[in-house]
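Continuing the batch. This is chain 6 of the set; chains 1 through 5 are on the previous pages. Same settings as before, nothing changed between runs. Recording input and output for traceability.
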Amino acid sequence: MSDEAFANQSKSGEIPSYDGDEKAKATDFANYFCSYAQLYHQKQMLVDHNRMASYHQAIMGNTDVFKDKVVMDVGTGSGILAVWAALAGAKKVYAIEYTDMANHARQVVEANGVSDIVTVIQGAVEDIQLPIAEDGLEAEEDGGTLVVDIMVSEWMGYFLLRESMLDSVIRARDKYLKKKTGLMLPSHCTMYVAPVYDEDDRSQSVHEYSHTMDDWSEFVESTRSLYGVNMGVLGKDFDREQKEYYLLSSRWAELGATQVLAEPKVVKAYDMSTCTLEDSRGIAHGEEMATFDFDVDADSTDEECVSGLAGWFTSDFKSRTDEGGADAPKINPAFLSTAPDAGYTHWGQQVMHFLAKTPLLQGETTRLQGSVELMRTKENARLYNCRLRFSNSRRKTAEAKDGNILMQGPNVEHVYQIP
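Output for chain 6:
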């Protein structure tokens, strides 16, 4: 059977929950949705107190905004955000959940006494239909579907975009959220990168790669001597596989603040009221924000080298900033950060290790210049590859940024899988 039979995307290249056939949707469920149907997975997110506290503050800290509003929770999971919305005064909450976790959400809703307000609807948000007429909802436009006042969702993945749930949120927003007064929570999301020290993990990955290649060499020799077959012809392909796994895959990390070696750089910013499906696809080559220019002063850190670049995100819960939202309610802000200085979150940071460390020399500043590109994989529309293009140079720290340099490194380009 061909690889296309198991591709985790529709024939048009979209996430299967939007326009996939039954085979694509089955693959998508097996690869993505099924884990969210397990309580252990939900618990992992529910004990992330930075995550929980930010959403709780955004909802319960704005009871005046939620009062008598229609709310949609996209990807409700255990239903906790929907329960908070009801407790905050919403008159109707629609909790949308694709998996059988919807059954558990109904139990949570019932146990917390808000079943008269919260309706759990099982299905893809792209497919479901709200009971607009049955529930007497008032649309922003006569006969339309723009009936939701507030849309909440915890859709963010590793390095923000992994899992591509943003597509579903955007489609739900465009179909149901009131354009002039509707609120998105979170309202804004921002992606960052920074050079980091993570040498223990980087050197461990290099060691494991070297070990597996030594093991391959021994395998080739033993197969030749014992069975008379030369498997060495496959060495290049095996090396490529192992390099992609050990060296060119980003690693989840819980970095400390001191491991960040320069001021983080914004590489993408999303206004959730106006971002498009094209925006959700990633970071295109040549985008203005996607470049970086870091100075790492060896005298300002105790770390010995640059191990790679790390990526993370923040989410704001605040009033609308787009021109079309001038009439939307103002809210008391809340904030979620997955940065190293914010403490533990289940998202952590994604670290893309350099193949060789970049030493930091006393009295010198190392400059890293380059760009980030983030694109969906061809095989799976929910996964991303990150292409880093960069070069490094060294100069005396007292020298101007564009002054005389001591060393100019070559241009480097690597593509990292974000597993």
